[in-house]
Amino acid sequence: MDLLQIIILAVVQGLTEFLPISSSAHLILVPVLTDWTDQGLSFDIAVHLGSLAAVLSYFRRELLAMSRDWGRSLVERRLVGESRLAWGVLLGTIPVGLAGLALRGMVADHWRSPLVIAASLIGFGLILAWSDWKHQNGRDEHSLSWKDIAIIGGAQALALIPGTSRSGITMTAALFLGLSREAASRFSFLLSIPVILLAIGLETLTLVRGEEAVDWASLALGTLLAGISAYLCIHYFLAFIRRIGMQPFVIYRVALGLVLFYFFW
Fold it and tell me: Could you tell me which of 166, 37, 162, 38 has the C-alpha nearest to residue 112?
């Protein structure tokens, strides 16, 4: 890849991983719309590492408390402090992990088309708009019940469909359950950690079994740029989401979906 391709793909991944507009859709579409060759599995792993580093860094204090209390909950066999939220993140990851293992081949072979992405962008975007209009702006992520976590985790499995957006569908479910915009966003970002780890693990196994050449300089630059852009995205999204709501992202999703239908129908 040349320098421009590395910069654009890394920044696109960093910005779209945590915005409700689908990072997978954008990483699929950029090569399609630019006639670039596919960036390759090793670069996908690198930019996901950057996104993971960003969310770990941003929520480092919360994650330290969650990890500490999770360990205590194992020893004391009861919920302690932040252990409930930690268990919620782990349990909420199970549905998408199982669905990913079961449907991985179908996703790779049949769902990575511009028309599927367009339909998902528009359809799930309108559902996001509905949830945002109905949100009550009351509960925080610490108030989630096990049933709430199961619902959000089940919704997250829908993100295997390109164009759905993992962050978008989990925020949608959380808003329908009465969480505030900020709480829905924070829980979605925390849920991204094990999901990204699982994705990196699966992609790394595939890479090890293959014979793809590795350009370490490109990977390092991609990781750095994705990490910086993802960190800034998380910071400013949480700072402004109460005021701007989800509607700008809905408008973007619908507009992009219509453009894709126009060019690829």
Answer: 162
